[in-house]
Amino acid sequence: MIETNFWLSFLFRFHLAVTARRSSSSPLKIPSKNSIQKIQMGTNQNSVLRGCSSNSRGALVVLEGLDRCGKTTQSSRLVQYLEGLGFSAELWRFPDRTTSVGQMISSYLSNKSQLDDRTIHLLFSANRWEKRSLMESKLKSGTTLIVDRYSYSGVAFSAAKGLDIEWCKAPEVGLLASDSVLYLDISPENAAERGGYGRERYEQLEFQRKVYQYYQVLHDSSWKIIDACQTMEDIEKQLQEIVLGCVKRCHNGEPLSELWLS
User: Fold this and answer.
1) For 1-44, what is each residue's pLDDT tens digit?
2) Rounded to whole angstroms, how far apart are CA atoms 213 and 160?
3) Looking at residues 217-226, what average pLDDT do you find?
4) What is the DSSP letter of 176?
5) What is the distance of C-alpha 262 from the center of its chain?
6) For position 15, what pLDDT does the model report?
7) Which helix (H) or strand (E) covers residue 247, if one does?
8) HSE (side-chain half, CA atoms, 13 Å) at 216
9) Most buried residue among 110, 141, 152, 166 by CB atoms closer than 10 A?
10) What 8-state DSSP symbol labels residue 94?
């Protein structure tokens, strides 16, 4: 509980600082209900880490999409594929439910506890921040990380609850940026027909429709969109081709960057 309180306090102060900085330079643009402004979130919007060398490194590959779109299965297969080619690779998932913060999130997602929308958003952010240092170390050591959900999910899901997108992005500023975002595209209706749907808090059709809408707002030309209604084998083949190219670029020295720093 002490560690959890530390992270909430840290993120609250961090969020206030970022919000104040942005407010002093330009007013926030709040999307209306009928016209949601497209917000660029791709890697081309990220700032290169200061002092980061151009040495060979692992790639940070993120899989995104609605619940039951197939991310978990494809993430595991990607790791196996890369390891089979001789690359060092690991599978990561957010939220990481093994940490103290992650355990609170897990309790919330399984409907065993209730938390304010802003509180749970900050906990999700804290869960990513507590792994940031290890993530950077792994990447610089040459290990490619295949990540099942990342900051983009955090923003899409919280915005779907009615929170402002800029507010949602603020505590994510400075996390490591993905080298590739792979979005498994499936309609909320098709996802709802898949096995196990409805076990967790967010697996409700109407809510997933809102999440889907915000994913459309968030993605830009840097994202790779894959039809998640194809056969598992066809999806796997497409992902392998994209990821292998990304891994090669990073091994050739493409620098790390951070999320949403202007």
Assistant:
1) 555 566 566 556 555 555 554 554 444 333 343 333 333 334 44
2) 8
3) 91
4) B
5) 19
6) 57
7) helix 232-251
8) 11
9) 152
10) S
